[in-house]
Amino acid sequence: MAEKTYLIRGAAILGGEAEDLLIRDGVIAARGKDLTDENATVIDGKGLVALPGMVDVHTHLREPGREDAETVETGTRAAALGGFTAVHAMANSNPVADTAGVVEQVHSLGRASGWVDVRPVGAVTVGLAGEQLAELGAMADSRAQVRMFSDDGICVHDPVLMRRALEYVKAFDGVVAQHAQEPRLTAGAQMNEGAVSAVLGLTGWPAVAEESIIARDVLLTQHVGSRLHVCHVSTAGSVEIVRWAKARGINVTAEVTPHHLLLTDELVRSYDPVYKVNPPLRTDADVQALRDGLADGTIDVVGTDHAPHPSEHKECEWAQAAMGMTGLETALSVVQETMIETGLMTWADFARVTSFTPAVIGRVADQGRPLEVGEPANVILVDPAARWTVDPHKMATMGRNSPFKGKELPGSVVATFFKGHPTVLDGKLNTPYRYPAVSSN
Amino acid sequence: MKHLLSTENLSAADAIRVLDTAEEMSAVGDREVKKLPALRGRTVVNLFFEDSTRTRISFEAAAKRLSADVINFAAKGSSVSKGESLKDTAQTLAAMGADAVVIRHWASGAPHRLAATDWIDAAVINAGDGTHEHPTQALLDAFTMRRHWSKLNGTASTGADLKGMRVAIAGDVLHSRVARSNVWLLKTLGAEVTLVAPPTLLPIGVEHWPCKVSYNLDQTLEAGIDAMMMLRVQGERMNASFFPSTREYSRRWGFDDARLRALDDLGMKDTIIMHPGPMNRGLEISSAAADSPRSTVLAQVRNGVSVRMAALYLLLSGDSREAAPTNAATPAFASQSSKESN
Amino acid sequence: MTEVTSAHVPSRVVLNQADIDRALTRIAHEILEANKGSQDLVLLGIPSRGYPLAVRLAAKIAAADPTVNAETIVGQLDVTMFRDDLSHQPTRPPRHTRLPLTGIDNKVVVLIDDVLYSGRTIRAALDALVDLGRPRIVRLAVLVDRGHRELPIRADHVGKNLPTSSSEKVRVHLEEIDSVDGVPVNEVVIEAGK
Description:
The complex is a heterotrimer.
Chain A: E1 6-13, E2 18-24, E3 27-32, E4 41-44, E5 49-52, E6 54-59, H1 72-81, E7 84-89, H2 100-113, E8 117-120, H3 136-141, E9 148-149, H4 159-168, E10 175-178, E11 191-192, H5 195-200, E12 204-205, H6 207-224, E13 228-230, H7 236-247, E14 252-256, H8 258-262, H9 284-295, E15 301-302, H10 331-340, H11 347-362, E16 379-389, E17 408-418, E18 421-425, E19 428-429
Parallel strand pairs in A: 1-4, 1-5, 6-7, 7-8, 9-10, 10-13, 11-12, 13-14, 14-15
Antiparallel strand pairs in A: 1-2, 2-3, 5-16, 16-17, 17-18, 18-19
Chain B: H1 12-29, E1 43-48, H2 53-65, E2 69-74, H3 86-95, E3 100-105, H4 110-116, E4 123-129, H5 135-153, E5 166-170, H6 177-188, E6 192-196, E7 212-214, H7 217-223, E8 227-230, H8 246-253, H9 257-265, E9 272-274, H10 287-290, H11 297-316, H12 332-337
Parallel strand pairs in B: 1-2, 1-3, 3-4, 5-6, 5-8, 6-7, 8-9
Helix pairs in contact in B: 1-5, 1-11, 2-11, 5-6, 5-11
Chain C: H1 2-6, E1 11-15, H2 17-34, E2 41-45, H3 50-64, H4 70-73, E3 74-76, E4 108-116, H5 120-132, E5 137-145, E6 157-161, E7 169-173, E8 187-191
Parallel strand pairs in C: 2-3, 2-4, 4-5, 5-6
Antiparallel strand pairs in C: 1-8, 7-8
Helix pairs in contact in C: 2-3
């Protein structure tokens, strides 16, 4: 192997005791105090936290079809810079990722880029149309090894179709990731329905439209004995329902986005579409409930819902604007700000919600593993004392639609190791990992 | 004041300044020469993304009476056929040297976007945006109410507010920019507002508004009101189940002949009936009510020109490069004698 | 800016209450004389301080000519909207314009202002008049003429000619408007420049 050896000196492992990590041949070759290796490139880890590479269960890479918004290359560069070593690429591309062909294409693009593992998410229904199941089995069996299926952006609202999808994915240990949004209750919806929408005259997106679907889906999941993942939970009521479902032993996992952990619908008063997202920004009470839910394990993971858009889709009237925010390069900082600086979570908890559990939900082998000898070297180094001001124009993503623009946030990613290779060093992009040539391909 | 986007953030002093200026403007309408040179050389663009002949001609008359050049730009677009973006339109108007943009848009917040971005540097006047606000309508309503209220109190309207006036606003509050702008402005001016509507046509969150809410028009009338403002109700709302039928709507929430008589029976001889127009006679208001001596419908139209003249004048006449708010009490003399130092 | 320094320089009073009263009495008689009586006279004061001066002049004219009802010959003419410097100054709310019931057509209109300086206010007043009617004659009476004219305008009746530097400020304080503690009313004050 041409891959270099790296010796990380004195980084706090998961925020705990400072130890050395020796990375060689794509794995953690040693862990302990005062390690030495003559051939290793030494990285000073003093003051840094070593964490498992983050795994995003919810990323929009836009390719194929909307390469003006993002490509697999640009999106995965952003991911690496943000501390990720794996992302789940959502299915709402054009063409939709509803066949083995499309998911294999995305998978190949990810391998060619080499910045992170790209795990395609398959569409639940053909063309996201909500009428007919896509060939879930073919996608599961493809080289992309799809395990997560989602019509994200659109709710699988037909209860019979949802039931069938939940049943069918049991055949290959899949999971249905639901975008919970009752469509009739949210026709023309522009923002959270409440005190602010009443004043602004924007059509409301009521919390009940999310909660009613989650309630239905957890009961369906229980009934058919399957596995459900709830995307971007955004309301206090949703947290309650998931908590109730888990207490009943229902196999449900839930995700929260960084922006829903920090921002509220008060920001919509500016009518700046950078704050337009689906599900919408909610109230302060919802934000607090989401933080509590993430801290107590009701919400299992953080998913970015990274949704880059070309500027013309945001430089317009609110009602005309596209929904979505970028998030890959700010996720770590926002979670540190909202969960760690507030004392709600430790860095070990952070590793659980951003790496261990996401990898389990997506069934991603070699990701979200403990930082132990022999484990794959997907490792990041974080400087928790750093503070930086978000400037979307300096990001690797093509999307300039960061709702955190101008905000000062804590924590920065100093290095990202993907399969033992540093994709990020000194906080800057290094080089991508190059997969060995496979003759059987 | 650089822009007039909403009444929500309009201070009482600014609101009264607009109303007082409108009083002076209204005098011009009674003259033989209904024109003032104040905005000579200024260009006002009426940018209408939604048809509204009434509002457009009211602004057009106002701008022309102040000698501004008026360009009417009917950029009617729908969410389906987008056409040119708001940004491109705004930059086009900026390149043409527009000093003020009077914008009517179907999308709530569109005027805020124009004002907040660097697309155009002109003063922005909201002529109605989506279901958000319609500040000049509320100002002309307040102007109409103030004249009535001060006359009743035997005081001059200039400088006055609406303290103690009881105003009921009935109809489709949920979809009404007129209702929103009126609630904020009337509250600022000291009036007591009651919204009357079927629960389906009130926004979630209305309980945070600075007004009372009632589902019962008759009870509101019995409690006593000084002004009754009816809002336009679109019959098509019936199809989205906001109410069962237009007949049931007008029976429960319309200002019909029986309720007109009730004003007399209840001894409210000075209560006025208002409507922003256009009216659906027989739905939210009966013909007898609309045409009764209590009705201020035509006065509202007339006052609309005066109020819009005031808004245009106050936003456009000053040196826009100087952000300092002016003090209404500044004597004209001071600026005369210190002219050279400017 | 000269105003900043002038605030710290003591001002001197050049006309006191009695001086003003004498000047107005003289102007009232001049107006009657120039008009050969009170026939068709209309006095229009320019806000703010021209109007109270017009009211005082009307009272003096009525005192001199018992056929005159002071109230029926006085009006106020706001010139705000006709100024040529609107776009160079902070926004000024317009004042009220009120004409005598007789109107101004074929009348002898005397415009009244406190200080005549550049002449631009009077130009604006002449424009404002044109939109209101067609007087037979328009004359101008001012309490103080401080010079520095920028337009071909002169006053027909002047209370006091006051040569000034353009860096100086001239303020007229009238009891009807300026009830400021510590400032003597009915006096012309020069706040000398640097």
